[in-house]
Amino acid sequence: AHGCEHWESLPEEHFVQGAIQLALAYHADAFLPEVVGYNLGYEQLPLHLLITSYELNELGIDPYYFTLHVTVDNAGSGHARKAVQALRHLMAQAADPAAFFRRVLDGYRLNELGACTTSVIGAFDLEAELVDIFTTKASIGRNMHSDYCRVAGRSVNDWLADPAQIPAFLEALEDAGWIQRGADVEHSRFWRLIQGERAEMFGVFSSYEQQVLRDWIVTPRDATAAARTTRVLSHRARQRSMESLTQHAQRGGYPERGLIRRRAAGAGGDTELHQLEERVAAASGKPEAMAMLTHLMSPSLHHTAPGLMATRMYSRLLDA
Q: Could you report the per-residue pLDDT of 123-137, keeping only the tens digit for each?
């Protein structure tokens, strides 16, 4: 999801939790106390889930999958309570409750093995990830660029010839003005090469790779500096904006697809489509939103993913 299809090269710790769950499921009869203990820990509400739900909304991403687990796993009437009830019920039937509970604790501790949400976030280095992306691209594109364009006096092919030069190449792009760190990506000439109408490098970077590049660009080189970027409209703010634009758009008594997609946590990350939704949601009203969509419905763009989405949105607004 979100352009992260190529997971095979991830470190082994990313797969530990999945392997534990499969192993416990396969040997459930032999390791019932461990299964109960593992489930007991798995169903408890972690602090990072509350933080994740809040921050996803701030980033304009639908947090519903996570907020749903906050509510259904609650300790009052949800899965967390049922996990405790299961433990009490099975311990009462055990021949040796103390020994059973020791094994339950071992199962509970299995939740701490392998990578977790907080460890993955803590270990993520944005610039190192971008360097890895460019290094991979360099092996394919190092002989595909014209020598006409030069960066810091050197051709792009020359820069890409040696993977060790990638960090210096990124710095040279910034120094030469191709990349404006700490500002909206639209101000960076390099970004316009990969995104936008007639972008010369359209399709070279996946959705995930574009997101990494976007995050790196909007982050100032000086960590203490404030980013000069446009505030991201929260997911709930976008939904409220669309509801006000289409409050009369439903016809025939049947629920219709919303103007703005509800983005599940595992949904694909179409950055370009997400940006279109944000621009429409930020429109001052229906006329401005429709004017914005008209351009994307032109013959040269109508067949593209943004063009098709614009057509659907325009039709909904037209009937509103």
A: 999 999 999 999 999
Residue 188 CB partners (closer than 8 Å, separation 6+): 178, 179, 180, 217
Q: Give the tens place of pLDDT for each residue, 251-292.
A: 444 344 456 655 544 444 567 888 888 888 888 888 888 999
Which residues have C-beta within 8 Å of that of residue 173, sequence separation ≥ 6?
151, 179, 190
What letter would DSSP give residue 62? -
Q: Which of 79, 108, 123 delimits the end of a domain?
A: 123
Q: Within this chain, do residues 90 and 148 fall inside the same structural domain, yes or no?
A: no
Number of domains making up the chain: 3
Residues 117 and 85: their CA atoms lie apart, in Å, by: 27
Residues 140, 117 within the same domain: no
- Is-contact 55 61, C-beta < 8 A? no
Give the per-residue pLDDT at 227: 58
CA-to-CA distance for 180 and 219, rounded, in angstroms?
A: 10
Q: What is the mean pLDDT of residues 238-251?
A: 61
**Residue 126 contacts residue 215 (beta carbons within 8 Å):** yes
Which residue's entry shows tokens 């009869």? 29
SS3 21: helix
Same domain, 287 and 315: yes
What residue numbers bound the domain in which 311 lies?
Answer: 235-319
User: How far apart are the C-alpha atoms of 214 and 162, rounded to whole Å?
Assistant: 24
**Which of 72, 94, 5, 88 is closest to 40 using CA atoms?**
88
> Alpha carbon 191 to chain centroid distance?
19
Rounded CA-CA distance 276/278 in Å is 5
